[in-house]
Amino acid sequence: MKFFIDTANLEQIKEAQDLGILDGVTTNPSLMAKEGISGYNKIMAHYKTICDIVDGDVSAEVIATDYEGMIKEGENLAALHPQIVVKIPMTKEGIKAIKYFSTKGIKTNCTLIFSAGQALLAAKAGATYVSPFVGRLDDISTNGLNLIAEIRLIFDNYGFETQILAASVRHTMHILHCAQLGADVMTGPLSAILGLLKHPLTDSGLAQFLADHAKTNK
Ligand code: E4P
């Protein structure tokens, strides 16, 4: 499973990259706003900086909601850096834009997926990734992980190459369950990724090893 970090924070992206396990980055307009990145030039420069830090795909979301606007914005984003993936919302206009980019060989990530039907449409349009939002479904008392399983089944039935990018992942158990269900990618915060490191028996075991070594190596 590929690990993407879901942030526009450069320090966190660098920390995940330094760990050696990072496969890419996802951003969205809210994450960019959280970092205080605003204005066309600054936003484009920030995406380029992220691409220079990481080796893999970097999702950059269009703001336009009409077909022509999405095409124009998406082409500008794609021209910025070869690692850019144009992130497009799951709408009727978005599906048309995904189809256009797919025929042009430009990678896309269809975002705001909350049903298997939406994922199926995006795959048929040729999306590189679909992003089902696990955490936001959990937030409204709907099991987000069930959606990952449904999409996996459908994509496997027909051999769709579209990758399932489990998004809105919030914690370690989301990551593990997404891995068990066969998500191709997960995107989550640095805290969820680092949470996988932790086990009290690892800490106590290491402390014991070091104490025993110290006793005989004075
Ligand atoms: C997906 O690409 C989104 O950026 C993200 O995963 C949304 O996560 P949230 O629901 O925690 O905001």
What does this structure look like?
Strand 5 (108-113), helix 6 (116-124) and strand 6 form a beta-alpha-beta unit. Helix 4 (67-80) packs across helix 5, helix 6 packs parallel to helix 8 (144-158) and helix 8 (144-158) packs parallel to helix 9 (172-181). The chain has helices at residues 10-19, 29-34, 40-53, 67-80, 92-104, 116-124, 134-139, 144-158, 172-181, 190-195, 200-216; strands at 2-6, 24-26, 57-61, 84-89, 108-113, 129-132, 163-166, 185-188. It has an eight-stranded parallel barrel, surrounded by seven helices. It has eleven helices and eight strands. It is globular, with a radius of gyration of 19 Å. It has 218 residues and is of the alpha/beta class. Bound molecules: erythose-4-phosphate. The site of erythose-4-phosphate (E4P) has 11 residues, from helix 7.
Short description:
This protein has 218 residues and is of the alpha/beta class. The protein is 55% helix and 17% strand. It contains 11 helices and 8 strands.
**Residue-averaged pLDDT:** 98
The amount of helix comes to: 55-70%
- Largest sheet, described in full? 8 strands, parallel, barrel
Number of helices: 11
Rg value: 19 Å
Q: Which ligands, by name, code or SMILES, are bound? A: erythose-4-phosphate
User: Which regions are unreliable across 5 or more consecutive residues at pLDDT < 50?
Assistant: none
- Overall, the morphology is globular
By secondary-structure content and strand pairing, the structural class works out as alpha/beta
Helices and strands, in N-to-C order?
Answer: EHEHHEHEHEHEHHEHEHH
Number of strands: 8
Strand content: 15-25%
Order of strands side by side in the largest beta sheet? 1-2-3-4-5-6-7-8
Distance between the first and last residues' Cα:
44 Å
